[in-house]
UniProtKB/TrEMBL annotation:
Taxonomic source organism: Nostocoides japonicum T1-X7
Domain Pyridoxamine 5'-phosphate oxidase N-terminal: from-to ranges: 9-99
UniProt superkingdom: Bacteria
Gene assigned in the entry: actVA
Name of the molecule in the record: ActVA 2 protein
Gene3D superfamilies associated with the record: Electron Transport, Fmn-binding Protein, Chain A
Any one Pfam family match given in the protein's UniProt record, by short name: PNPOx_N
Length: 122
């Protein structure tokens, strides 16, 4: 399991929206915007949303056990100054406890282990 740098953790703390990528059993990709939190206790990215247990992303994680999240923004458009953090790794569909993680989380959530980390501008 990879570790995030202090700068990467600071960046995540200032963001609330990411894009979660999963693949279905048929191998076809699926990408959706979603809320997330870095969980300092488990050193994971916890991905939330309302009615998570009924979503395709949740079913995909149940089926494959893998996911990736990208968090990005623009510091400036002139000059063009993007920032991006991508985290890929094993993922678990967790049926309960998400509502304890804060706003934007229902009971079920996805827990993403920090495997591969790519970033720029951070």
């Amino acid at each position: 399991m990879a570790e995030l740098t202090a700068s990467q953790l600071d960046y995540l703390a200032g963001q609330r929206l990411g894009r979660l990528a999963t693949a279905g059993q048929d191998g076809r990709p699926h990408v959706v915007p979603t809320s997330f939190r870095y969980n300092a206790r488990t050193h994971t990215i916890d991905v939330g949303g309302h009615h998570m247990a009924t979503t395709k992303k949740y079913r995909d994680v149940q089926a494959t056990g893998w996911a990736a999240i990208v968090v990005d923004d623009l510091v400036s458009v002139d000059p063009w100054t993007p920032r991006m953090l991508e985290i890929r790794g094993r993922a678990s569909a967790v049926p309960e406890g998400g509502s304890d993680l804060g706003p934007g989380f229902g009971d079920a959530f996805i827990r993403l282990e920090i495997g591969t980390v790519n970033s720029f501008g951070i």
